[in-house]
Amino acid sequence: MTTICSIIRIHLRWIVRTPFYDIHKSLGAKIVNFHGWEMPLQYSGIMDEHVNVRTNVGLFDVSHMGRFEIKGQHSLACLQRLVTNDLEKLADHQALYSPMCYEDGGIVDDIIAYRLGRDNYLVVVNASNRSKDLEWISKHLKSAHVEDISDRTGLLAIQGPRASDLLQKLVETDLQSVKPFHIVDTKIDKIECMLSRTGYTGEDGFELFFDSSRIEIWDKLMQYAKIFGIKPTGLGARDTLRLEAGLMLYGNDMDENTTPLEVPLKWTVSLNKKQEFIGKKALINSRPSRKLVGFEVLEKRIARQGNKVLIKGMEVGFVTSGNFSPTLRKSIGFCFVPTEVSQDQSIEIDIGGKHYEAKTTSTRFYKRKQSMQ
Amino acid sequence: MSELKFTKEHEWIKINEGVAIIGISDFAQEQLGDIVSIELPKAGGVFRQGQTMAIVDSVKASSDIYAPISGEILEVNEGLIENPEMINQSPYDSGWIAKIKPSNIEEFESLMTKEKYDRYIGEIK
After folding, report:
1. Do B61 and A300 touch (CB under 8 A)?
2. What residues of chain A, 268 to 297, have a C-beta less than 8 Å from chain B?
3. Could you report the per-residue pLDDT of A16-61, keeping only the tens digit for each?
4. Which CATH number characterizes residue A345's domain?
5. Is the ipTM of this complex over 0.90?
C-alpha cells in the first residue's frame, strides 16, 4: 500500500530520453522514470487514452525499446539457438514472437524477431533488458554479429481500429496487403520507414521504425487528429491495454525464475524444431507446479503486483499484474496459482491485509471484433 | 463554515457547525489519476488523527486516506461507491469522503492553510 505522498514523490534521476521527449513535455505529459527512461505516463488521462485506443487510434512513443540488428553468416542458426520459437517458419518481411531462455528454462526476455532478409534480422527487446540481452545475444552469435541500433532509430506505435485507415493516408503501400506480423518498407513524405503490423494493445495496429532524427513523423501522424481521433497515449494506458488483451509484461508476469511453460507461452516453445535451443532440455524435463491465470476481483478493490493469492485461507500464489479494466469496468489481473486450479475457481486476494473475493479466469479479458483484415 | 485546511498527506478538511467534512485535495486527485474505487469507513467508526480511514484505488496506485483529525464518523459519501470518479471531477464538493465529529478541535488549528498548502505542494512539484 502506498500513500499519496509516495506517488507524488517521483524523484527523477538524470536519465535517458527518447527523441520525442520535448514533444511529450510540450503536450503536458506526466513523465515517469521507466527503467531509467523518462517516459510519458499519461497525457489526457489513462482512462481516456485507453478508451480512445479501443475506439479510435492511439499514438505511442516506444522508442525506449531495444532494437538489435543481427547480420552475417549463420544469423538464423545462431538465433534459432537463442529463441524457443521456430524462426525457420519466417519468410522475408515476417515477424515472430518468442521467449529467449537460459539453460534452466528461465526466461531471459521475450522478443519479436523480424526477418528482413537472408541472415538479416531485427530483434526488438524490452527496454528494461536492453543491456542484458545485448550481452546474452553477443555471447551466442559466433560468426554473425549484433549491433544495437536503438539510439539511431525511432519507434512509434499506432494502435486502434482506425490505425490502418489513418496510416493509409500517409503511405502508398496498400496496407490491406500487410498481414499481422508482417513488415513492409515504405515512405511517409519521403521519410524512409519500416512498418510492421504488430503491437501490444490487443487492437489492430502498426509499429513504425525510422531514423531517430525524423521526429517530424509525430506531427505527420497527429495532423489527422480531427479525422481519426488519434491521441498521444502513455505508458499507463499501454499497461491497462496489454493487461486486458492478456499480454504479459517481462518483469511482472515473467522473469528469469519463470519458464514459458508456467505462463501461457507454451505455443512459443517449439520442441520439434530442427536446431537445439538453449533451455530445451530443462523445458522437456520440467513439470510446472504453478501456472499464470487471469483473475477478477469480485469486490471493489484493485489487486496489485505482489498481493498474495489464497484458497480457503491458504496462501497458494501471488498477483503479478493487476489493475482496473476500463473496457470491462472490472478489477482484473494475472496471478500464479497451482497447476491443478481450474478456471472460475473462487480465490481470495490479500490487499493490504484484508482478503477480498476473486475468481480465476482466462488471461484474455478482451478480444477485439475481427476487422476486415 | 470554516476555511479549508490541509494535511501533508493531501487531505482537506473544513468545519461546518461543529461537523468536519473531509476529502482529498485537487493536487492529490490529479496525481492519483482516474480513481476507480474507494473503500469507505463505516458510520460510527472512531479514528485517531493520522489513522487510515479510507483507501482509494486509481489506475496508477492504491492509496491510504488518513483521518486529518480525531473523531467519530457521522456519515460517508455513499455516492462514491458507484461513482468514485466524483473525487476527480469535484474533489472539494461532490467528491467529499466523510463527515467526522471532531473529538479535539485543536488538531484542526494545527493543519495547513490553503496558502501554506500551496507553498508545500510547490516544493514537492
Report:
1. no
2. none
3. 999 999 999 999 999 999 999 999 999 999 999 999 999 999 999 9
4. 2.40.30.110
5. no
Cell of B32: 492519483
For residue A357, what are the domain limits? 289-361
Answer whether B60 sits within 8 Å of A5, measured CB to CB: no
C-alpha–C-alpha distance, residues B5 and A216, integer Å: 47
Contact A337, A293 (CB under 8 A): yes
Contact with chain B for residue A12, Cβ under 8 A:
no
| Residue in A with minimal Cα distance to B34 | A47
Position A279 in a domain: no
Which residues, 6+ apart, have CB-to-CB distance to B5 below 8 Å? Answer: B12, B13, B14, B68, B108, B111, B112, B113, B114, B117
The partner residue sitting opposite B55, judged by closest CB among A7, A45, A352, is A352
State pLDDT tens for residues B80-108.
999 999 999 999 999 999 999 999 999 99
Q: Which residues pair with A193 in a beta bridge?
A: A186, A210
Q: Does A3 touch chain B (CB under 8 A)?
A: yes
- Give chain B's domains with CATH numbers: 5-104 (2.40.50.100)
A79 in B contact zone (CB under 8 Å): no
Q: Which residues of B57-80 are buried (b: 16+ CB within 10 A; e: fewer)?
A: bbbbbbbbbbbbbbbebeebbeeb
Verify whether the Cβ–Cβ distance B63 to A42 is below 8 Å: no
- Distance from the Cα of B3 to chain A's closest Cα (Å) equals 23
